[in-house]
Amino acid sequence: MGRDGTKNSKHTGYNSAVSISVANINSVWGSLLVEELIRSGADYFCISPGSRSAPLAMAIANNARANTFVHFDERGAAYRALGYARATGKSAVLICTSGTAAANYLPAVVEASSDMLPLILLTADRPPELLETGANQTTRQACLFGEFVRWSFNLPCPDRAIPPEMPLTTIDYAVQQATRVPAGPVHLNCMFREPLAPVETGEDFRSYLSSITGWLDSSEPYTKYEQAERVVDTPALDRISKILDRAKAGIVILGHLPRASDRNAALALAERMQWPVFADITSGARLGAARTEVIPFFNLALTSDHVKQTLRPDTILHVGGRVVSKRLMQWIEESSLKSYIHVVDHPTRIDPIHCVTHRVETDIESFCRTLSGRIGETARSDYMSLWLRTSGVIDHVLQQFLAETGELVEAGVARLLSTEISPDTALFLASSMPIRDMDIFAATGGAAVPVAANRGVSGIDGTVASAAGYAVGIGQPVTLLIGDLALLHDLNSLAMLHNSETRVIVVVINNNGGGIFDHLPISEFGESYEKFFVNPHGFRFEFVAKQFGLDYTHAQTIAELRSQYRQAIIQERSAVIEVAVDRAENMRFHKRLIHEIGSALKL
Ligand SMILES: Cc1ncc(C[n+]2csc(CCOP(=O)(O)OP(=O)(O)O)c2C)c(N)n1
Ligand SMILES: [Mg+2]
User: What is the mean pLDDT of residues 342-347?
Assistant: First the structure.
């Protein structure tokens, strides 16, 4: 027997293929919980150290199939788990001790709940006799995450009076609740009495474990949740086909669509119908778009009143999650549509402008393929041709403008990354202007890489950690485009990046505060505006990058940015590339560009 009391089939009497620590009842339960999580596909554990969670941490340490990451900051650990879940669709597991440690999970839990990502939170707690007594490091943890979790449960202290099937089926149910539609976070508050370390108590657990010998000898979860297929309903198909058939000016909007098969089926349907496609940056269909139906510059087109008046749609087919562009939503709201059909794979309403007339909750790929099969070959319409022409004109103006400007502007950075992005990487976009600039200015001529962002609640927090988790989950380096305030918000998480499995190239646009507010009416309000909204700080990131062992460069021109980015891509390390941008110049560029586009589109 090892020092931790681990026994397996090699030890007589404990007839199991699984490593179960039998040092004491806490370690037995810890082993069962961790093994069952792994069997259920939740094998990525983000652990933040603490004493009360020792039975869980030691069980993870003793399970060879557990993939682990240890981080001191629970908030960052939770965001990392979120990024991992975003990349893989699998539940990531969080382990922490009691008290404020658990409370630090809240921001990521809110994002996971809103963006429907599976997380399993195992927060350690003191036993019931110590709660509400003033015992150290205790608080009301049982329902800490309120309505933001799909399920929460106060797991009783490990006890021989409770059969070992109970922790197993509880984990199975927890994973099911986290991953079934709509996916989301699940909280198990795990109470433990002393001893917390795997110290030998001399107990014999053979009779206790005898009822689960079948499970011990297998490699499957105790309760297997069978998946039922979601079929496409024929009357609904008839109704939707009829609406699409009758449309004279239809647009396909692609929202957040993480699965390539869904994306491709939606694009094939658009091609069949010959409808223009407005592909949101998080759809995955924008960067490297090979299809002619994709209208990359729809957002800039909608800065023109002429376009807004003459190209109004009568029908929208929106496939996938929410979209970044507020301008698009405002235009649709003003457009007195006949129909707005929203096709999604979850039950949660996404309709901030209250325009959806038909909502189809289904398997996106099969629904789009079935619809495609019902639609005859269509010739290119005038409506489609006008959109293609409009987007082409904007592309031309934008290229010319960027070539002429001597300054480093945010549009230029977004455009450069969209064409320079390496095909072997993924792109993670921070909230605020990075995601908007990419949505507005990205070209389609670069590589088609996965694009991700925390758009559930659009926080500027936890972005570095989310990108790091995404890199681990997707198994590729990630390029992160982030603002200075968002980076300041998550400096701690730079500590995650020196590890080679988490390669993130951080491109930080330092415009000395929240540049986004310059685009809002509040920017007219002088000194109070600067202080209370922009929050200028004057910080640079060179020494922070060095502190965390990361390569650092500072790009002062677009050519420098290009060469520094290319260099960072070929290095086998994470890096920070700082791009200092002047906010006032950036706004001047923006206004001139929009004026120029307006004039070009009137011709
Ligand atoms: C956690 C959180 N706090 C505050 C906000 C409000 N907010 C939105 S954008 C923004 C400014 C972000 O600045 P920066 O990251 O530098 O990006 P920039 O606006 O300059 O592009 C703030 C404070 C938020 N979205 N999330
Ligand atoms: Mg900024």
Answer: 96
Ligand nearest to the CA of residue 532, numbered in listed order = 1
**pLDDT tens profile 212-250:** 999 999 999 999 999 877 777 788 899 999 999 999 999
Residues in CB range of 23: below 8 A, 6 or more apart: 4, 5, 198, 199, 200, 201
Domain range list for the chain: 6-216, 234-388, 408-581
Please give the CATH architecture assigned to the domain spanning 234-388.
3-Layer(aba) Sandwich (3.40)
CATH of domain 408-581: 3.40.50.970
483 lines ligand 1 (CB under 6 A): yes
Instruction: Verify whether ligand 1 is closer than 6 Å to residue 516 (CB atom).
Output: yes
Distance of CA 354 to the CA centre of its chain: 25
- Are 6-216 and 234-388 in the same CATH fold? yes
Does 11 score more than 70 pLDDT? no
| Per-residue pLDDT tens digits for 189-198 | 999 999 999 9
Smallest CA-to-CA distance from 299 within 327, 276, 267, 322 is with: 327
Q: Is 459 in the pocket of ligand 1 (CB under 6 A)?
A: yes
SS3 state at 567: helix
Angle in degrees, CA 65, 69, 72, rounded to 5: 150
What count of other Cβ atoms lies within 10 Å of the Cβ of residue 413? 25
432 within ligand 1 shell (Cβ under 6 A): yes
Cross-strand pairs, 315: 250, 339
Q: Which atom of ligand 1 is nearest to the CA of 107?
A: 1
Average pLDDT rounded to a whole number, residues 12-22: 68
Measured in Å, residue 580 CA sits from the centre of ligand 2 at 10
Q: Give the architecture-level CATH label for domain 6-216.
A: 3-Layer(aba) Sandwich (3.40)
Average pLDDT, integer, range 141-150: 96
394 alpha-carbon distance from chain centroid: 30
What does the pLDDT read at residue 16? 61
